[in-house]
Amino acid sequence: MELRNTKPTTTSKPTPKKKADSNIHKDHRSRLKNQFMSNGIDALTDIQKLELLLFYSIPQKDTNPIAHKLLAEFGSIKNVFAANISDLMKVSGIKENSATLIKFVGSMLNYCSRPDEEDVIDSTSKGKEFASKYFAHIEVEQFYVFCLTKSNKLKKSVLINSGTAGEVNVQIRNITQVAIENKCDRIIVSHNHPCGKAIMSDQDCKFTYSLVCSCILNNIDVLDHIIVGTDRTISLYEQGIIEKLKMKAANTIQLSEEKRFFISESSKSYIKSSIDE
Hints:
By secondary structure, the protein is an alpha+beta fold. It has helices at 23-39, 46-54, 64-74, 77-82, 85-88, 96-112, 124-134, 172-181, 202-217, 241-253, 257-267; strands at residues 142-148, 154-162, 186-192, 221-228, 233-235. Strand 1 and strand 2 form a beta hairpin.
């Protein structure tokens, strides 16, 4: 038998895959942050604004494609911030943390756009505009009390309660107590209909009448009840309802002439700007 001198077979090691450059996204993030810090928000496109925001909820993944998907889904950056969390999470790449961050920033933008304290609310147009800003992008019913001075200057805005998309529970005594604690002479109350039109229900009317009675007894005047819906904002004072409720309350409680005069004079400082149809 002939023996052959054969070299042992050697298996070559696989060539290691070239490691992806881990600095690509890091450098891109640094450049985008520096661009914002150096030149401000106007230097960024809407895609870049969302991309940069998502850096803080998505620490490593490329957020540019996700930003594109958000704008494609909602149509504009304003609509992205106005969207609810469940709809945001339907977008590929957006999980609970990112959806919460977007919603929080949108809510903060709305909060910062609210009127400053000590603004004067001396007409129904100002009252409706003022109240509407409190309910922008709010998905549940809420009830606010705006405490005013004798000159209709805002002293404080107080959220009485938040409810569901269809209702909010409010106690008359809680509203009256807020007005007394803030030593205000007048109040405007407001609630929203986040899933429907701004229509005054029988329940709204009965509630407002009870509130008017309670406040009159405590020398506090209810100037208006403003309802903010998805279609418009209405003022019960503008529609003549508040005046009728005050007259009914005055007759029911048998108010003195002094208190009747107080109610009458108070209303003169709040002007009907227009009538909603």
